[in-house]
Amino acid sequence: MNAILTVAGKEFRDGLRNRWIVAITVIFAVLAIGLAYFGAAAAGRVGFTSLSTTIVSLASLAVFIIPLIALMLAYDGVVGEDENGTLLLLMTYPLSRWQILLGKMAGHGAIMAFSTLLGFGSAAIIMGLFADSTSWGDLISAFSLFIVSAILLGWVFIAFAYIISTLVTEKSKAAGMALIVWFLFVLVFDLGLLGLLVGTQGDVNAELFPYLLLLNPTDIFRLVNISYFASEKITGLMAIAQHVQFSTITLLLGMLVWLSSSIGLALLFFNRRSL
Amino acid sequence: MSIVELERVEKHYQSVHALQGLDLVIQPGEILGLFGHNGAGKTTTIKLILGLIEATKGTVRVFGEDPTLSEARNLRRKLGFLQENVSFYDQLTGLEVLNYFAKLKGVSKKQSRELLHQVGLDHAIKRRVKTYSKGMRQRLGLAQALLGDPKLLLLDEPTVGLDPIATQDFYQRLNQLKERGCTIILCSHVLPGVEKYIDRGLIMGHGHILAEGNLDDLRAKANLPLTLRISGDVELPENLQGRIKQRNGEIHMEVGLEEKMQVMKTVMSLPGLENIDLHLPTLEDLYTYFTGSMQLEAEK
Questions:
Q1: For chain A, domain boundaries
Q2: How close, in Å, is residue B106 to chain A by CA atoms?
Q3: Which fold has domain B4-219?
């Protein structure tokens, strides 16, 4: 346990030093405040829009950017240390492989969680102070759920990044694979589902279809935040899920399943990695 | 008890036979030099001793245990290792890097400061590693290897990037460690200057041991002639005329080890002798000889 904390602490300090934490925090804060303030610009006015509009549009933007940041943060977690030679060195220390990997993932996970909380949290506080229409109670509960799901999404993609990182032997290859993973989960998967829907002319089992959304952690993230505001008019792919109402807990558990299985896979591949 | 025991160890990587039937026993307090060209099997040997890879055949014992077993993990506290070309975490300071490794090894932070002082990095402990020169990084790596007073120290090309004075310092430190009972394996293909400090040399090639022993043993085995350089207006006796290799102001002649004293006496008594230089085959000459003879065999 101690060794894991030591490795995680070092990783977190690295994140502070190379400005990752500051960068992610600022991006998230600017994104959230900007969307909240200019969200209604298309309607010809500025000023803080309703909480539900803000969260729903924030979720659909965050779903692109969080996976990207998480993958960029952690893609060289293993292969980078290998190229530096420090991985070999760590292996000669009295700690096991899983301790190294869990420690590094915990460190990167902490960077992600800390920045998400700070970035979106500060945006929530600013909204609470300056937007008259929303009550603190609504704001806190909505943003809490958003932040928790955003952190989980970040963690899932950090675990994806580690799977990539343990499988390749060159940093550049890891970067390329991370880009492909991002493209597949964030863009291609939804397009594929829509294609399936259109291609079969809607003749798919309406009961089954929503479950397909659970096969992609980014869709789960969107469902969590959209279903929280059930009153909002839902468009696009997310509308399919209306046939089957998943509870928030089910959805969050779904993300945890994604998280734990990806961590498990990363550990498995790392144990097999030859030096 | 011997610290390291390798018995008929083989290591194959797919089609490559990195090691073939290696036998090696290292006694406590010994400094062993491991020499060989790239791909000779040095690094594989080191990795086997560290327990990073498993032998395909044969047995490896370090401190009497199989280093690949997870029960042997605590033995690693008694190990120090520095590999070639390690670049530490650039964003952290020298002290932070060493404290990190100290914590992982269960060593006090006080010791990491002491070690930084010993390797002469006092002035740079608060600077980030990315500002370090190659020599400074190497010294940081050495400090890392010395954490926790290791009983077995494995050093791969430890003097790369060190200036001559730092290299001398480094070898002297090795002697101090040896006096404290530390066993040291030194892996290198940079040879000049290392002879004085090693107890035994091991020259490897293509996964085999080509030659083994202390410098005298190796010289006797190679039976390389020594070179005499004679200056002055001298006339060599008949029987030595044939040995002259070169004559331009001074005379270069090659003499076998066994007739060294006899020839020296003869030359010393010659009238007109001004100076005489004796050049014994160095480790480098021996290395070239052994690896060269291996290549010749391979060509056959």
A1: 2-269
A2: 9
A3: Rossmann fold (3.40.50)
